[in-house]
Design goal:
five-stranded mixed β-sheet, alpha/beta, 24% strand
């Protein structure tokens, strides 16, 4: 496969460029070799996730946890493939779990014409292949992943959207709360369930403590990312 299959973000933490840098997944590995995968990209990305696993010297049998930041087709599109390859089911926030299991996206923001149009095309199983779910996340819990992975519920982009803070390496995975595509920016308004809520809840990301910010859309920030995100949020306060 052409291109870089993994980008190391911290010891035993990698970004997987699934559609160049525009769509990303992540790998976290425990000291004992257990692997957690976060977000599986679009429908064609499943094999890339598995190839990335091989690059870091891990096998499908090492995967003990599969996570989704939310149930959108550019994150859950490859999920069913990865579930079959690893024999594992997924964990995601309660408010997105039912959508993942039926293969449909949560409603889009109907205050935007594009949101209304996309909603008309959405059908269970049409958005992405239904995803097996074994567990539901709650805000604030710390998963026993590679030294501790804290769940930060940041709804708005979807009802159950979460960001993830890896406490051991001080690395933040923003999910789609904020993009880093040609600079920091909001996700596409019409693809959010409630864009104004997205703006409000993203402000919690400025209060967390991290040294690297990783994005599901765009490359990571390693140089004072918390300050950059706080400046962005200060300039883009919700009405």
């Amino acid at each position: 496969m052409a291109g870089t299959l993994v980008v190391q973000l911290a010891p035993d933490v990698w970004r997987i460029p699934l559609v160049r840098d525009f769509v990303n997944g992540f790998i976290l590995r425990d000291d004992d070799g257990q692997v957690t995968l976060v977000d599986m990209g679009v429908k064609s990305s499943g094999p890339k996730v598995m190839a990335a696993l091989a690059v870091i010297g891990s096998a499908p049998s090492d995967v003990t946890r599969l996570l989704l930041t939310h149930a959108h087709p550019d994150h859950a599109g490859g999920a069913a493939h990865v579930a079959r390859e690893t024999g594992r089911a997924f964990t995601l926030h309660h408010d997105d779990a039912a959508y993942a299991m039926e293969g449909s996206s949560p409603p889009r923001d109907r205050s935007f014409l594009l949101g209304r149009l996309v909603d008309r095309l959405s059908r269970p199983g049409r958005d992405f292949e239904p995803v097996p779910v074994e567990r539901e996340l709650v805000d604030g819990e710390v998963l026993p992943v590679a030294g501790g992975l804290r769940v930060v519920h940041t709804p708005g982009h979807s009802p159950g959207h979460v960001s993830l803070l890896h406490e051991d390496s001080r690395l933040l995975i923003t999910g789609d709360a904020i993009f880093n595509v040609r600079g920091l920016r909001w996700p596409v308004k019409a693809f959010c369930t409630d864009f104004r809520m997205t703006q409000r809840t993203a402000h919690v990301l400025g209060e967390l403590d991290y040294e690297v910010a990783a994005f599901t859309h765009g490359p990571e920030l390693r140089d004072r990312p918390r300050e950059a995100i706080r400046r962005f949020l200060a300039r883009h306060r919700p009405d």
